[in-house]
Specification:
The structure holds 2 protein chains of 2 kinds. By secondary structure, chain A is mainly alpha-helical. In chain A, 78% of the residues lie in helices and 2% in strands. Chain A is built from 14 helices and 4 strands. In chain A, strand 2 and strand 3 form a beta hairpin. Chain B is of the alpha/beta class. Chain B folds into 2 domains: 170 residues, Rossmann fold, CATH 3.40.50; 78 residues, no CATH class. Chain B is built from 11 helices and 10 strands. In chain B, the strands form 2 sheets. In chain B, strands 6-7-8-3-9-10 form a 6-stranded mixed sheet, sandwiched between helices. In chain B, 41% of the residues are buried.
């Protein structure tokens, strides 16, 4: 079996599973899977920047939040429908990430992490302070639900398909991209910038492009998410989200594209389990137990599986590919 | 433009580069004719690698001019130099370790392809067609250095000699007019050096111009039409191998080292 055929098979299988889950699963499962699509999808963008392009950006929640706020504000004021608003939000975020990314991406490693962390704090504080526009810390209320023509998305099930459609579309785009000349260029400057430049790769331009692409994807996720919540609040897009995304990236592994999504799946379900069972034993300790548990899990993963869960599954897949290849001649 | 200028591929005049108080290059002048093999030798720290880095656009020179195919290319960034036809390898390999052997060579084809982010991300037919072409060209480059069978191996599975060949194949993927090799024979076994010499002759036959920086004296002496000797950033000798071998200053610069 050729690897192209095999990957098509995996894609179709994955889409089939996602489609079938709401039919066989309970509403509770559908609800959790909604969050996995959004946060796992965000983690994919962040993992790609971190693990494959070597861009240590902590600003991912910024693009998620700005997208959510732009479409939310436009919808609340009746200027644009959420659908149009999400596109306007994406254009806005694309522009802002270009203006900020162009100077910031000249920084490397931890310096870039510090600068983007600063950006995260600035944007979160501003969202809380510009009360007339954003509603401040009380939040932006009354965001209308998403609608296509006359069809209004109201239930978790509707949003489940919307979120997964977005998540899979982004994943598919990035999968194609990373398998192309652009993807090789992005991976190459992570390994050796001097060699990449000597091969004709305009490194600063490519860094900026992939930064903008993942930002715009996060912006769409933000717009869709605020429509789902019908509400936006600066705290949703803050440092705690960044920590959560980082946990997903590390647990899932950032060397593969699907790793952070797998990480998102594992982290979200573990959190559900912790809340469900430990909530009864230690009723007021949920947050602390979560922090302690994931702290230890990250350390264990970093020591014993530096490639994350996907590093491990990737090896299994490759092993399968090689044995299949051998047996068929 | 005269006939002489047409025959010159690379022309370097008064090239200087310093790092703090150290003059890595001072006033180096020489030219590389089309279709020839020119070598540069010199003791450690003579400025050989700096020279390649300046010509390939990694460093901007402090003084001097670089002309390539008659056009002034001084200070142009590396990725444009690459697109213009200057290919190179690295002393410390600088291979892309997270990519396979074939993918490394495919990165070399980058400058000669143009599908954009969206064409690639949406898997448009034009991008897929170009991808196929890149793959074929990369396989040809790998075949030239005799590594087709290793195409899908990770870089880490290859011994040093084969890695050096991947570096050359990657540079060949760029379809360069000038190929600069930074210590291609360093650390190679005798039979590998012989293979390298055969490859270099094959490349020159195909119309490529080579500029080689090397420590391995017999290798340089047997291959080069002209040799340039660098010491402490300055050109101390230039000429055919026999002449350079007899030059007193060269012998002094290599004090204690035997110039064969």
């Amino acid at each position: 079996m050729s690897s192209v055929l095999q990957s098509k098979f995996l894609w179709l299988g994955f889409i089939a599973v996602i489609t079938v889950i709401p039919i066989v699963g309970s509403p509770y499962i559908v609800g959790v899977m909604c969050f996995i699509a959004i946060f796992g999808g965000l983690a994919v963008g962040m993992g790609l920047l971190l693990g494959q392009a070597g861009i240590f950006s902590l600003a991912h929640p910024v693009w998620f939040g700005l997208g959510g706020y732009v479409s939310g504000i436009l919808a609340v004021r009746g200027i644009a429908s959420p659908w149009l608003g999400s596109i306007i939000g994406a254009i806005f975020v694309g522009f802002v990430s270009y203006v900020i990314g162009a100077p910031l991406l000249r920084l490397k490693g931890y310096y870039l992490a510090c600068a983007t962390f600063g950006l995260l704090i600035i944007v979160q504080t501003s969202l809380g302070q510009i009360k007339s526009l954003t509603g401040g810390h009380e939040g932006l209320m009354g965001i209308p639900p998403f609608s296509f023509g006359g069809f209004v998305l109201e239930t978790d099930l509707h949003y489940y398909y919307l979120f997964w459609a977005l998540c899979l579309a982004c994943l598919w785009f990035l999968y194609n991209l990373m398998g192309s000349r652009m993807g090789r260029a992005i991976k190459s400057f992570h390994d050796s910038e001097i060699a990449a430049r000597s091969m004709g790769i305009n490194v600063p331009l490519y860094k900026l492009k992939i930064f903008i692409i993942t930002s715009v994807m996060a912006s769409f996720a933000g717009s869709f998410y605020t429509c789902y919540l019908r509400f936006a609040e600066p705290g949703i897009f803050g440092f705690s989200l960044q920590v959560q995304l980082m946990t997903m990236v590390i647990i899932g592994g950032s060397r593969t594209l699907y790793g952070p999504l797998l990480g998102g799946f594992v982290v979200m379900w573990l959190m559900e389990l912790i809340n469900m069972y430990l909530g009864k034993v230690l009723p007021r300790m949920g947050a602390q137990v979560n922090a302690l548990f994931f702290g230890i899990l990250i350390i264990v993963i970093l020591i014993f599986m530096p490639g994350g869960l996907s590093g491990w599954t990737d090896r299994l897949l490759n092993l399968g590919r090689r044995t299949i290849g051998k047996s068929s001649g | 433009m005269g006939k002489a200028a047409d025959d010159v591929l690379l022309d370097v005049r008064g090239l200087s580069k310093h790092f703090g108080g150290i003059n890595a290059l001072s006033g180096v002048t020489f030219s590389v004719p089309k279709g020839s093999i020119i070598s540069m030798i010199g003791p450690n720290g003579a400025g050989k690698s700096t020279f390649i880095n300046v010509v390939s656009g990694i460093y901007v020179p402090d003084a001097g001019e670089i002309h390539f195919l008659g056009a002034d290319i001084t200070g142009i960034p590396a990725h444009i130099m690459a697109a213009n036809g200057i290919g190179r390898t690295f002393q410390l390999l600088e291979l892309f370790n997270s990519l396979s052997v074939l993918e490394n060579v495919m990165v070399g084809c980058h400058a000669k392809s143009q599908s954009g982010m969206f064409a690639c991300g949406l898997s448009m037919p034009s991008a897929l067609k170009e991808e196929k072409r890149i793959r074929e060209e990369a396989m040809e480059s790998l075949a030239m250095v005799g590594l087709e069978s290793r195409a899908h191996d990770p870089i880490s599975h290859l011994p040093l000699g084969e890695r050096k060949m991947v570096g050359i194949a990657r540079a060949l993927g760029m379809k360069p007019k000038l190929l600069m090799l930074d210590e291609p024979a360093g650390g190679l076994a005798t039979h590998e050096v012989e293979g390298l010499i055969r490859l270099i002759h094959l490349l020159v036959e195909r119309g490529l111009t080579l500029f080689i920086v090397e420590h391995n004296m017999p290798f340089v002496m047997s291959l080069s039409r002209r040799i340039l000797v660098l010491n402490e950033g300055m050109k101390i000798a230039e000429g055919p191998p026999e002449e350079v071998r007899a030059n007193e200053e060269v012998i002094k610069a290599y004090l204690g080292e035997e110039v064969c």
